[in-house]
């Protein structure tokens, strides 16, 4: 009898532990995606909303541009280093939904459609990201995703084979955002097609508690924008770094495998940063465990910018599976000291990963 009672107690305890673990996992966004900070290429900072394909066919937002960037990611060593996403931003849509109420791409600039573009990107061993906006319109004035369209648009993206959604927040209220961002998370998961989810939600609410609930964000989004858009200047980079450092006690605990703070794109290879400033942005984004999304023209990128963005040491640190965001521990005039807790600083490691 005592042995039977002991076995029963052991079984009960195992069941309790299992249920507790099940409950804990059910509270998190466990779609299995972005266990390390995502890496790839994003159109916005370099190409903005250039839709004049007659005057500027080489640089306008079109399927040709994204196919060419996919080619360069695959051919020029980017993909093999982890840069796997080709991300469309605003201005890809037609100005109106179709007769069935579905989002559609601009027929002149994307004549073969997004599904064909996704297939092309996938054939290069890459993933396709797309842009939407939780509101009546996108930031550039294209059709938005209102609350009654969330499930429909999620299914559309899944049917196209899209691998990532960036959901902006122009033209929506705080109440609509509070409802819409979690609903889109559930809708994407319900499609059965794995779609990583980038939310601009906290950036529209000031980026800090109590307006922003980072526990809820980690249970909703894989990546989130906390702060304003980066511009092509060193001053913009510094303003982002300063905000993140000032608020690191709030931001650092929120980040980790599957859910990341996003200080915005890497602008290395454009026009606003010097060589040393470019190296600094790469190092700072690396230490912050930030997504590494380049926004530059890979067709004409300089050798020096390419060397910075393809630095194996930086990428290895950024992609550490522990996903611990670094902290600023000292600032004195123009000097900063950064603490990094998850990197094996050994000569052997340096030789193996970096030489």
From TrEMBL:
<keyword id="KW-0458">Lysosome</keyword>
<dbReference type="GO" id="GO:0019377">
    <property type="term" value="P:glycolipid catabolic process"/>
</dbReference>
<comment type="similarity">
    <text>Belongs to the glycosyl hydrolase 27 family.</text>
</comment>
<dbReference type="GO" id="GO:0016139">
    <property type="term" value="P:glycoside catabolic process"/>
</dbReference>
<dbReference type="InterPro" id="IPR000111">
    <property type="entry name" value="Glyco_hydro_27/36_CS"/>
</dbReference>
<keyword id="KW-0732">Signal</keyword>
<keyword id="KW-0443">Lipid metabolism</keyword>
<dbReference type="GO" id="GO:0005764">
    <property type="term" value="C:lysosome"/>
</dbReference>
<dbReference type="InterPro" id="IPR013785">
    <property type="entry name" value="Aldolase_TIM"/>
</dbReference>
<dbReference type="GO" id="GO:0008456">
    <property type="term" value="F:alpha-N-acetylgalactosaminidase activity"/>
</dbReference>
<comment type="function">
    <text>Removes terminal alpha-N-acetylgalactosamine residues from glycolipids and glycopeptides. Required for the breakdown of glycolipids.</text>
</comment>
<comment type="subunit">
    <text>Homodimer.</text>
</comment>
<keyword id="KW-0378">Hydrolase</keyword>
<keyword id="KW-0325">Glycoprotein</keyword>
<keyword id="KW-1015">Disulfide bond</keyword>
<dbReference type="GO" id="GO:0004557">
    <property type="term" value="F:alpha-galactosidase activity"/>
</dbReference>
<dbReference type="InterPro" id="IPR017853">
    <property type="entry name" value="GH"/>
</dbReference>
<dbReference type="InterPro" id="IPR002241">
    <property type="entry name" value="Glyco_hydro_27"/>
</dbReference>
<dbReference type="GO" id="GO:0009311">
    <property type="term" value="P:oligosaccharide metabolic process"/>
</dbReference>
<dbReference type="Pfam" id="PF16499">
    <property type="entry name" value="Melibiase_2"/>
</dbReference>
<feature type="signal peptide">
    <location>
        <begin position="1"/>
        <end position="28"/>
    </location>
</feature>
<keyword id="KW-0326">Glycosidase</keyword>
<protein>
    <recommendedName>
        <fullName>Alpha-galactosidase</fullName>
        <ecNumber>3.2.1.-</ecNumber>
    </recommendedName>
</protein>
<dbReference type="GO" id="GO:0016020">
    <property type="term" value="C:membrane"/>
</dbReference>
């Amino acid at each position: 009898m005592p042995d039977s009672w002991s076995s029963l107690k052991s079984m009960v305890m195992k069941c309790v532990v299992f249920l507790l673990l099940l409950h804990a996992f059910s509270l998190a966004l466990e779609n299995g995606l972005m266990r390390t900070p995502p890496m790839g290429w994003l159109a916005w900072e370099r190409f903005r909303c250039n839709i004049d394909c007659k005057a500027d066919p080489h640089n306008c937002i079109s399927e040709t541009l994204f196919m060419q960037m996919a080619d360069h990611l695959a051919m020029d060593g980017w993909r093999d280093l982890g840069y796997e996403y080709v991300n469309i931003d605003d201005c890809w849509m037609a100005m109106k939904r179709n007769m069935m109420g579905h989002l559609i791409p601009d027929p002149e600039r994307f004549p073969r459609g997004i599904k064909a573009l996704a297939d092309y990107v996938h054939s290069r061993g890459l993933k396709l990201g797309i842009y939407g906006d939780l509101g009546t319109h996108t930031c550039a004035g294209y059709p938005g995703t209102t609350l009654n369209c969330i499930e429909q648009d999620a299914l559309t993206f899944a049917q196209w084979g899209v691998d990532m959604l960036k959901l902006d927040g122009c033209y929506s209220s705080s109440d609509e955002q509070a409802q819409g961002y979690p609903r889109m998370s559930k809708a994407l998961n319900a499609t059965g097609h794995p779609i990583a989810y980038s939310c601009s939600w906290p950036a529209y609410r000031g980026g800090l508690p109590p307006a922003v609930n980072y526990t809820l964000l980690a249970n909703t989004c894989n990546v989130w924008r906390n702060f304003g858009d980066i511009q092509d200047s060193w001053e913009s980079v510094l303003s982002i770094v300063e905000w993140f450092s000032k608020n690191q006690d709030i931001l650092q605990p929120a980040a980790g495998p599957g859910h990341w703070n996003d200080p915005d794109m890497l602008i290395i290879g454009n026009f606003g940063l010097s060589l040393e400033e470019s190296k600094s942005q790469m190092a700072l984004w690396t230490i912050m465990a930030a997504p590494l999304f380049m926004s530059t023209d890979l067709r004409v990128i300089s050798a020096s910018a390419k060397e910075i963005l393809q630095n194996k040491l930086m990428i290895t640190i950024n992609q550490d599976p522990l996903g611990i965001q670094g902290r600023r521990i000292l600032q004195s005039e123009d000097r900063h000291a950064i603490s990094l807790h998850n990197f094996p600083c050994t000569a052997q490691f340096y030789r193996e990963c970096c030489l």
